[in-house]
Amino acid sequence: MNAFGIASYGIAALSFLVLTLLLITAWRGRQQGGHLIVASAVTALWAGILAVQSYTGHVPVLVIYLAEAIRGGAWLLALVAVAGIAAPTWLAIAARGLCVLLLAAAVVLPVLEHYGVAMVNPTLLLSRAGLAVALLALILLEQIYRNSSQVARRSLKYFIIGVGTLFAYDLFLYSQTELLHAVSIDAWTSRGILNAFAMPLIAVAARRNPEWSLDVFVSRQIVFYTTTVLVIGSYLTVMALGGLYVREIGGAWGNVGQIVFFAGAVVVLASLVTSAALRRHARVFISKHFYRNKYDYRIEWLRFIRTLSSTDEEDVGRTALRSIAQIFTSPGGFLFLRDETGKKFLPYAAWPMSIDSLGLPASLSADDDLPQFLAGKQWIIDTEEFRRAPDFYGNIAMPPWLLDKEQLRIVSPMLQLDRLVGFVVLYDPPPPFELTYEDRDLLKTLGRHVATHIAQQDADRRLAESRQFEAYNRLTAFMMHDLKNSVAQLKLIVANAPRHKHKPEFIDDAMETIANAADRMTKLIEQLRGSTSADRHVAADLRELAQQAVARCSYRAPKPQLQAGPPTMVMANAERLSVIIEHIIRNAQDATSETGSVSVSIGQNGREAELLVEDTGAGMDADFIRNRLFRPFDSTKGAKGMGIGAYQVREYIRLLGGDVEVQSSPGQGTRFAVSLPLSQGQDATAAAPNSNAVV
């Protein structure tokens, strides 16, 4: 019994049995695939017979010869099928003829021996048949490789190496047998394990050649861990042999030297196995050299969707960044999104750090080179490549905050229906990393998916807000009912008062006041009903409207101070815009103590009018401004507020074509800036900043 031979051929039999099952489950009916399945199955049977021979030592030579002949013939026919028209006709005929001759010899020679005709020595017959098969197989492999295109060679090289290993070793084995007139036992038993090592190469080749109709899936995790186990086993074997050598030459200290040597080898092995950098290099090597694709897209996409739909992060932006970064093992990144006006991009989220800690600009204009390039070209920008060859990207003006930080590596657009809605910036993944076309295609796909996901989240938020507005509209219906009753009562008093008055002057004044209140409530009802032209825009003097609003707020402390220049005409509904200004001032007063100050100023900047309301109050942090200030029905005043004031201010200003910007810090006060387009009749250049009035 030969233990090593049993293990060697047993491993080979198991390996090719697994390969056969993989090929059978993936076969789509093509001829090449069928021949490979037969060759793999025959090799598994051949290895099993030789394992039995190593165990018993009594398998007849004729059985071994038949196993060798059938195995060799199966691989020759598989090579002819793979070569197709690339192989010369005479070579294909020779391969098929040799298969027939080998099988015929297995039948004819025993019959001749039975009738007393001398036959060739069984060992020499085995070796010469093996030599013929090995030589013809290697010639076929050379023809396959030489007649293939450069693209096909990249897919065939593992098949050439795998099958070539089988028959190159057979050539060595049987050449040695011819010279020595005997089979080397060590070379014979080592043959099985060598066949087992060739099996993964053949499997990878089948995976990389879909024209064979073999959709073989070989998990990268299995390849990685299997390779790791084989390497560790080989390392420990070599170290064990090294320890044995140390013991043999160490004399009295041999045993101690062997223990110390082996322990040191284990420590080195543990250091290597736990090295993250080594694991990354190994994964990259396996993906690059054994697979057509850089990524296992099934596994990566499942992980991406699982992360994107997780609830670990409340912020959908942070979750989206984490789902993208983990695919490329990037340590983090941040995300810019287009605002609702479409005029600029704002920092939206960062992962794993806080976005406020990155020192990013408050906004990036949509007219800048970077957004224009991303929207027009829809390219992935590699900042490392941009620094080397900016002309490749059209020499665009990259923002300094992006280009000066070398750790910021990738800029990827987020597109929705070919419209740029944002972009992702990723930090440089750990080496080894090279941004290939696969990375770029994957980033584009991920960007579109994330853009759709965030848009869906925003649509859900808007739907929830619309439902809240429905509830608010129902509330206003009750308010109109109550106001209508009050108006009716006031009108009744006005109608009956002339008959019951005793002091005409007093009563007249009172009646006039009541009548004004009635008229005002009537207007409120009409506005709530939407029956008035509240949104009809006419030329209005922003300075005058601000003066009216300041006057109405002057009874409260701190008293607002107005700095107003010349008349500043804008297009708006005067009454509604005045209420908007009043709301901004009252908010500033609410946030400021009586000893503080609130200032209001009116000015012009080019073709825009500017209203600034500044206070020295409590201030707000960046997170509150970004996520809560303009969110409807989110109030910090408890039951006193509905939480729609700031939202109404911004929406009405945007309806007029303007915008609202807020600058604030906790304890440092707030600066509320409203910009509105000047009316066509307003000459912005004629405004003289020398007539300031203080109210």
From TrEMBL:
Residues 478-680 form the Histidine kinase domain. SMART domains: HATPase_c. The chain crosses the membrane at residues 6-24, 36-56, 62-86, 93-112, 124-144, 156-175, 222-246, 258-278. Its EC number is 2.7.13.3. The keyword DNA-binding does not apply. It comes from the Bacteria. The keyword Phosphoprotein applies. This is histidine kinase. It catalyses: ATP + protein L-histidine = ADP + protein N-phospho-L-histidine. Keywords: ATP-binding, Kinase, Membrane, Nucleotide-binding, Phosphoprotein, Transferase, Transmembrane, Transmembrane helix, Two-component regulatory system.
